[in-house]
Amino acid sequence: MSTTPIDATTTAAWHELSQHRDALRPDLREWFASDPDRAQRLTRTAGDLHVDLSKNVVTDEILGLLVQLAEQVDLGGRTEAMFRGDHINVTEDRAVLHTALRRPEGAEPRLTVDGQDVDADVQAELAKVCAFAEQVRSGAWTGVTGAPVKTVVNIGIGGSDLGPVMAYEALKPYAGDIELRFVSNIDPTDVAETIADLDPTTTLFIVASKTFGTLETLTNARLAREWLWETLAAADAIENTDASRTAAVAKHFVAVSTALDKVEAFGIDPTNAFGFWDWVGGRYSVPSAIGTSLAIAIGPERFREFLAGFHTMDEHFRTTPFHQNVPVLMGMLNVWYVNFMDAHTHAVLPYAQHLHRFPAYLQQLTMESNGKSVRWDGSPVTTATGEVFWGEPGTNGQHAFYQLIHQGTRLIPADFIAVATPAHPLRDGEADVHELFLANFFAQTKALAFGKTADEVRAEGTAEEVVSARVFEGNRPTTSIMAPALTPSVLGQLIALYEHITFVEGIVWGLDSFDQWGVELGKKLATEIAPAVGGDTAAIEAQDPSTRGLIEYYRANRK
Ligand code: F6P
């Protein structure tokens, strides 16, 4: 396979799409009025997801050209290369195999990559995670005093935090008695406040770090270890000896990492560590052992259902023709909005309170993957890349930022996500509250698509001078995603859907969506600046005037 990305802007499809964009007069009202089949024709199914694309600002011709563009940049070839284990993470010379984490046991043909029996290793590690989760859940795993675990604290950041915390929140109805808490930020407030009220004898820490070299995670892990030792000693649960402290760590700390040597150096027994592999990117790692905390919370059976959900979407993506393929169509629609309609951002609006961390999770997935300005061969990109993903659950967002989506000057494509069956089927008198909630979802997508004309505003008796302020242009694109319920499988399907959307966009732009060099500089500088913050005069003087001024302000005002 060529190592030079195909420049999408030189393809015939791109050229034609530009012409269609120039001629386009968006009119969703008219398109729906004159084409009663539009909604049905532009609705797709992927696994349990029902995806209505009809309120997007595209004609059938444009959608057809977007499919052609996907073909002309060899999306099919790149997809096969990913699933096969080719080193498509070029800048790190690695395979990209998060899809292997969710292959079912016994899948054929077996996946062997770079001499590694990937299937065997994945199944062995998954079995280990599940067995451990069962031990913790059953109370067979105890702390130093023999007490079972009541709270699990996952210490990690980025992909080693966002996936587990988002999924735990999403699957709360499936969680057992063990509470999960999460520490990620190096702001000492995070660890201090998260663990302050915990009983050390019933607390288990999971240090989750792919590299086991991340400053935030290792700092927080050391702080948690100190807290454990101090509070256990204060409760006379351990003696003030090295042996006693080591024994406490063995019962209260486990690790998840690809760097098991560093886990041991930290003091965690490698038999209490769960591994994964360099071909799993941090932001793609929740279906790996990084999901250990989640497996404890929801149990091994549900965790396997979660993985099966991912696999359902993987298979849909890998095998479905492009014009029926939901991740391909949604990814190509994003390309349409970014590259042809000048959209800079993309809203993800879950109408499901349990998905309240989903937009934050997607921010790392999408923006760490596609926030790039060079292609995988090192050449500059030829078009805009990487829109900003953001969002909040409905209906909270409606009372905050929807004004701008409805009537602002920016085009903001939005994905609306909801489930048919509520976690809490409450009634307010006669009213089913979930139905009121869904009515808001449907009302918003309708208003965004069809707007409100000046004549309609006038017909309500509105004074002429405020008519224009009350007009809604409409033609604001949305995709509506619905599922029967927010089960572990559906959550896996949703996550995999967005993983593949991100991949599709990255291929069109020629990106290596699996490295993240852009976060390295800041990390390195933080280490270099730390002595200056601590008062080292030479280090302070070595800073630029702005940074020096900020450090001096800090030093003068710190109480
Ligand atoms: O933010 C950069 C990054 O490397 C992410 O990609 C990753 O998820 C996060 O840091 C945490 O890394 P680790 O799991 O190695 O601690």
UniProtKB/TrEMBL annotation:
Q: Classify the source by domain of life.
A: Bacteria
Q: What class of enzyme is it?
A: isomerase
Q: What is its EC number?
A: 5.3.1.9
Q: Name one GO cellular component term.
A: cytosol
Q: Where does the record place it?
A: Cytoplasm
Q: In which pathway does it act?
A: Carbohydrate degradation; glycolysis; D-glyceraldehyde 3-phosphate and glycerone phosphate from D-glucose: step 2/4; Carbohydrate biosynthesis; gluconeogenesis
Q: Which residues form the active site?
A: E368 (proton donor), H399, K523
Supply one GO BP term. Answer: gluconeogenesis
- Which PROSITE patterns does this entry report, sorted A to Z? P_GLUCOSE_ISOMERASE_1, P_GLUCOSE_ISOMERASE_2, P_GLUCOSE_ISOMERASE_3
Q: Which molecular function GO terms apply here?
A: carbohydrate derivative binding; glucose-6-phosphate isomerase activity; monosaccharide binding
Q: Which reaction does it catalyse?
A: alpha-D-glucose 6-phosphate = beta-D-fructose 6-phosphate
Tell me the SUPFAM superfamilies matching this sequence.
Answer: SIS domain
Which InterPro entries does this chain map to?
G6P_Isomerase, G6P_Isomerase_C, Phosphoglucose_isomerase_CS, SIS_dom_sf, SIS_PGI_1, SIS_PGI_2
Q: Which UniProt keywords apply?
A: Cytoplasm, Gluconeogenesis, Glycolysis, Isomerase
Q: Where mainly found?
A: cytoplasm
Transmembrane stretches, start-end: none
Q: What does this protein do?
A: Catalyzes the reversible isomerization of glucose-6-phosphate to fructose-6-phosphate.
Q: Which HAMAP family match?
A: G6P_isomerase (MF_00473)
Family listed: Belongs to the GPI family.
Q: PANTHER family annotated for this entry?
A: GLUCOSE-6-PHOSPHATE ISOMERASE
Q: What is this protein called?
A: Glucose-6-phosphate isomerase
